[in-house]
């Protein structure tokens, strides 16, 4: 099946993870650097699709941009039709559901191909934080902690060790950085850039990049944790 080839594209990509904690969500991506000529911070794999909602992708970068633009179109449609704030999963204003249907439609016809990405949607609304994953097949599932990409198995193992419902969003940033550095340790021959964003109480509900100072501190702790990891 063509969907299986799309899944292979995801498996060959850098790892992306999402953590849903007591006061928000954190998204983190292991963005592999394929050339030293690339501008740092360019070709982002985490994008803001609404003020309170973001998405992280693993797989084909161009497909990720397509999905991000589609998500923004769906959000504009929800605001126009319902005159309410879109949510990640609460129907009928659920962005993740609409993107899942969009992805699934691309598996039905021979004139198109499935999207070669898995997408993690994270955000906060009046019901609290939400985290959902849309697979290339169109399957959409909710998680407390999610991982997609090449190192997803090790990342899931590490996520399962955490008491996510008890973590603060700042603690989640440190844990997310640690997990990304850990999964990258199996792929040492390639350099990578850690990309992170968050939404929650610390950001007044807005989805924004993690501040540079906090990100640098989280990366330093991740390197130290890697040295003592058994």
Can you describe this structure?
Helix content is 37%, strand content 27%. By secondary structure, the chain is α+β, with helices and mostly antiparallel strands. The protein has a five-stranded antiparallel β-sheet. Strands 3-4-5-6-7 form a five-stranded antiparallel β-sheet. Strand 9 (192-200) and strand 10 form a beta hairpin. The N and C termini lie far apart (39 Å). The mean pLDDT is 93.
Q: Characteristics of this structure?
A:
single chain; 6 helices
Total beta-strand segments: 10
Mean pLDDT score: 93
Helix content: 25-40%
The computed structural class is: alpha+beta
* Whole-angstrom Rg: 17 Å
What is the subunit organization of this protein? single chain
End-to-end distance, in Å? 39 Å
**Unreliable residue stretches:** none
Order of helices and strands: HEEEEHHEEEEHHEEH
What is the number of helical segments per DSSP (H or I, 4+ residues)?
6
Reported for the largest beta sheet, the result is:
5 strands, antiparallel
| Shape designation | globular
The proportion of residues in beta strands is 25-35%
For the biggest β-sheet, the strand order reads: 8-1-2-9-10
